[in-house]
Amino acid sequence: MLVVWTFVVNVTQTFYQAEENHNITLDWTFTTKPDTSSNSLFIYCGLITGRKTLYDLQRGVEVSESQDQQFLGRVQFDKDVLREGRIRLQLSRLRTEDSGLYLCKVKTDYGGNAGECRLNVTVQQLHTDTSGLKLSRTRRGCFTLNMMKMIFRILQLINLIACVSGTFVVNVTQTIFQAEENHNITLDWTFTTKPQSSISSLNILCSLFLNREILVLLHLHDGVEVSESQDQQFSGRVQFDKDVLREGRIRLQLSRLRTEDSGLYLCEVKTDDGISMKEWRLNVTAADQLKPQRPTVSPEPESQGWIGLYVGLGLTAAAVLLVTLCFALRRRFTKSTDKTENPSSVV
């Protein structure tokens, strides 16, 4: 039985190749409903490898101040196609530093998801003026582009069917992880796997999502770890257990935890069998917040009763002693007075 309205984000191409100073259009598609309002739509597209914001839409309103200086004045967003479930961004006057891995995250009232693509901008080459050569190149380019589009659409259809039918699933052992700073923590995911599955077809992207920033925790492309994608915040603190991948497990150890590691994490897994993702939250508390406080020791009610009894007896004994002493002194004083007043009685 198919799951209705499963939210999916796809890219028309997973790899874009272009030449500097040229323009390129990046396309994503996402699940939409007829009654969807742009006021409930959040879109974040950014260059992950450089942690730079390409485009930011909050509740249907473009947040231009979030855009990185590198892309300023070079991005055109087609807002008219949003209702069709499409995100179309044109990046003009390409630069070689625009190369890298791009992620587009979409969130609505009925779901959220993300899709990634890679852009490679090459240095501009000098072209010959021979018109026949230009025509040949153009024809070959058009043929290659059309073939690539057709292949990508077929792959997207296969992935969509796999996601909707629920054959490929990513799960997390815990949805909330709690730890103390400077300690270590092990994060675990599981994903659907088959005996004949190859690690070389495995793509994993785990990231920390902040308000307007994406920090890559782990990036695995075609079974190979892409260390340059990892954010500086996690550098040298992540250990990845590659041996358990064949069992359908992702195991990461994050050491020397910091409070800034806290937040919402998203792990996306893509194989030949399908694509899926799962989110979880990590909360790292400061060390001094978890130190137990010594409880104030107060005497038990029974002990208080005995103490009162002892104090009362002590005061009573002291009072009796004082009265006895006073009586003895008075008696002695009286005898002395009698002897002074009757001297004749003395022999």
Q: How would you characterize this protein structure?
A:
The protein has 347 residues and is of the alpha+beta class. The protein has 2 domains: 9-125 and 137-165, Immunoglobulins (Immunoglobulin-like, Sandwich), CATH 2.60.40.10; 170-289, Immunoglobulin-like (Sandwich). The chain has 2 helices and 20 strands. The strands form 4 sheets. Strands 2-10-9-4-5-6 form a 6-stranded mixed beta sheet, with no helix packed on it. A 6-stranded mixed beta sheet has the order 12-20-19-14-15-16, covered by helices on one side. A hairpin with a 2-residue loop joins strand 15 and strand 16 (224-225). It is elongated, with a radius of gyration of 39 Å. The N and C termini lie far apart (134 Å).
Largest sheet: 6 strands, mixed
Shape: elongated
> Biggest sheet, strands in spatial order?
2-10-9-4-5-6
Tell how many strands the DSSP assignment holds.
Answer: 20
What is the CATH top level name of the largest domain? Mainly Beta
Radius of gyration: 39 Å
With helices defined by DSSP (H or I, 4 residues minimum), what is the helix count? 2
CATH topology of the largest domain: Immunoglobulin-like
Cα distance, first to last residue?
Answer: 134 Å
Could you report the average pLDDT, rounded to the nearest whole number? 76
